[in-house]
Structures are given as C-alpha cells and as structure tokens.
Amino acid sequence: MESIELLLGGFANALTPINLLWVVVGAVLGTAVGVLPGLGSAMAVALLLPVTFSLDPVGAFIMFAGVYYGGLFGDSTTGILLNTPGNSSAIATTIEGHRMAKAGRAPQALATSAIGAFIGGIIATTLVVFFAPRLADLASLFGPAEYFALAMFAFVATATVVADSVVKGLAALAIGLALAMIGIDGPSGASRFTLGLPQLFDGVAIVVITVGLLALGEVLHVASRIHRDPDPVQSTFTGRPWLKKSDVRKAWPAWLRGAGFGVPFGVIPVGGSEIPTFLAYGTERRLDARRKNPMFGKGAIQGVAAPEAAGNATAGSAMGALLALGLPTSATAAIMLAAFQQYGMQPGPLLFDRNADLVWTLLASLFVGMIVLLILNLPFAPLWAKLLLIPKHYLYAGISVFCGLGVYATSSSIADLILLLIIGLVGFMMRRHGLPVAPVLIAVILGPLAETELRRALAVSEGDVGILFDSPIAVALYSLLAIAVVFMVVNKIRKHLREKA
C-alpha cells in the first residue's frame, strides 16, 4: 500500500502541464533518433543527455522517461520497414516484422510492435514499483566487498555475453577501465594517465565518452562504408496500423510470454535485451512449428509480438535494477546512471530515502511515457518512416554537428571537442574490428565504484584479500559469475563445433 501511495504522489508531480510536455518531447525525440538506422535507443539517450542540463532534475528525468522507451520503439520501426534494425535488441523483431512488411502488412507489424512494447513495459514497470524498494532494502546489506563483487559480476558478464569473442569483450572492458582511470586519484592526489595536461586532471566527461563512442563512432563507420553499403530499397507504407481480432488472438499469448522472458533479464548484467528477445523469438518459432499451418518464415505476427514485449520488459526491469542497486545492466542504463551522476545523485538503496520525490515521479513518468508513445506511434508511424528517406550524407553530417554542439555546450571546452574526436576514432576502430561498445560504457561507469570499494575493503582488512570472499553475498555473486562464464564458454564451443561440422 505504501508503494501505491508513493506512486500516486509521483503521478501528481508527473501530470503537471510542463512535465507532460517534457514527456511528449522526450518520446518524440527518442523515437526520431531511434528510428534512424545504426543509432538506436542508447544513442538517443547519449545524444539528448546534454539537452537536459538546462532543466531541473525532475523535468530532465521525466524527459528521459520518454526518450528511454521512444528509442526502443524507433529501433523496431526501422527494422520492420527497411530490414535495418536501429539496435541489436531489435534484430529478433526484424526477422518476421520485415517479412510482414514485404507481404503488405507493415501497418499490422508496427501495431503489434507498439502494443507489445507497451504491454512489456507496463508489466515490468509495475513489478519495479512493488519490488524496487525491496531490492533497495536488500542492497543496504551490501558492504565494500559485496559492491566490488557486484561490479566484477557486471564487468565479466557483460564482456562475455555481448561479444562474439570473449577476448574482444574483455578488450572492450579494458578500454573502458583505461578511460575511467584518467584524472586525479582521489585517495593519493596523484595524476594518472593525464600526460601532464591540466585539461585531463578532472578525467574525461561521461558525456564526451558516450557521444564519442556511440554517435561519432557510428558516423565515422557509416562514412567509411557509404559507397560499399548502398541505401536499402524503400518499403511502401500505406494504410493505418490496426489489428483484427484474429491477429490479437495470435499475438496476446506471445506478448505475455515475451514479457515473461524480458523481466528477469533486466536485472542481470548481460549487456541489454538481445538474449531475452532471441529466447522469446525462438520459443514462438518452436511453438509455431507444431501448428498445422506454420507461419514463421512468411511473416508470423507472434515473431514480432514476443521479442518486442521481451525487449521493453527488459528495459523496464533494468530501470528497477538501476534505481535500487545502482547497477546498469545495459549500455542505455549505463548512460542513464551517468545522467543521475551529473545531477549529483547516486542510484542505490539510499536514493529511495534521499530523493524519494524524484524516484517516484520518474517511475510514474515511465507509465505516462508508454501511454504517450502508444498514442503517438500508432497513428504517426508513417511519419517516422519518412525520416528514413533522408540521404545518409545529410543525416550523418547533421548528427556530427549535433555531437559537437552538445559536448561544447556542456563544458565550453575545446579540449573536450578534441577528446570527442579521439574517442570517436576509438569507437570507429572498435566497430571496424568487431569490439562491442556496451562493456566500455559499463566499465567507465562502474570502474570508479569498483576501485573505491576495493580500496575500502582492503583498508578495513589491512591488506588482507580474503575479505573479498568472507561475505556469503559476495561468494554467491562470484559463484553465479563462474557458472555464467562456464555456460557461455560451453555454448560458444558447441556453436563453433556445429559451424565447423
């Protein structure tokens, strides 16, 4: 009952005219960026992070609620219409969604996607409302050793899951940790990796890293291949998105099953929603194979419904893990954590006590944002499709300008623009060699936390490393990590042997 009362207070703050305006603006901007191929929801949050600095914290995070889910819907829109998913989390939706579009059922595919995203997000956010405070109470049992174990779990789990190669994942993790260590070391006051430059004494701003890696790195990658990768043939889009009763009967069990896959994965640091979306897609495909008239491969509506619900359910429960534990379980959540830190707030168990008004207003705005997105995206999906008609050279040139302006506006520093270009080149080289970006962002965000908690634990134990393994919670986290790594390695070996055979 207490959670319901607090949530109602959050709705009272979120439903003021100015805050409703910020939700709508965030939903529109998030969808507009997410719908562009190669950008996606993480980049939508990264690009729009500088825009919110002029707002008060409540207005900024309400706007982020719209951006957060708007980018996810945009990811699927471009995949369904052009077979070019805006993000890897939309790949599973794209498989059957684009087949529906080629069969003249693009409106139905987009409607299925929008409603599935709404259902998955609503279920996950409702669970967050009731269970995030309990998670926060659990997190109060964490000390330095437990937080270090949690950070190590996030590092290794993300690095081994999101990359084709464990080596590439660990290399990306090392890049992130190197960036996180630049600046003045707090306890000793010594400068680290600054090359003697005063501009680096404060470290590299998280905005510079996120915009450089995600946005500018993608721009440079696209520019390098613009003559090799021709623009895809534009799909026709006619009619209004709507579903028949027969479509709803096929889709609603898939929506619920997809949400069931997505919710638990939101609190596991596996780098995003790729795993639950493919699990949901694979389950629907196996169920469809038992039917008299299998539809997978021809444009099965279940193949759109389940992955889309799974993706947004993962995003919703990831917000709960971020707020209650301070643990970002995906690249988008890592950027959201950076946004909290920009306003001097640290997500975790104390956030619900120190900033309760902001937390419950944010949770209420997630509900409002999903309703706004459903209203916007069902009738206006053809409008988002027209953004795909912008020529690549104009589109990515505009993104480059926006990157520079956004970073310069936050610091008025030429040094940050130079760092933006350098990190953009790093992002380009990572894409060229197949290194994932998510471990870099997780390492940049959680690296300082891991270092601080490790030093605190060793200071308390007077240098005895055994303190890191004395706690049952820490031992449980390390055990889960070992099991997860063994499971992933065995699966990758099996996959390699099957491909070789």
Structure in words:
The chain has 19 helices and two strands. It has a two-stranded antiparallel sheet. It has 501 residues and is mainly α. α9 (206-224) runs antiparallel to α16 and α10 crosses α11. The protein has one domain. The chain is globular.
Salient structural properties:
73% helix, single chain, mainly alpha
Task: Compile the SSE list and pairings.
Elements: H1 2-14, H2 17-34, H3 40-48, H4 57-82, H5 91-102, H6 106-139, H7 144-161, H8 166-180, E1 183-184, E2 191-192, H9 206-224, H10 245-265, H11 274-289, H12 302-325, H13 331-342, H14 351-354, H15 356-387, H16 392-411, H17 414-432, H18 438-460, H19 472-500
Antiparallel strand pairs: 1-2
Helix pairs in contact: 1-15, 2-3, 2-4, 2-15, 3-4, 3-9, 3-13, 4-5, 4-6, 4-12, 4-15, 5-6, 5-12, 6-10, 6-12, 6-15, 7-8, 7-18, 7-19, 8-18, 9-16, 9-17, 10-11, 10-12, 11-12, 12-13, 13-18, 16-17
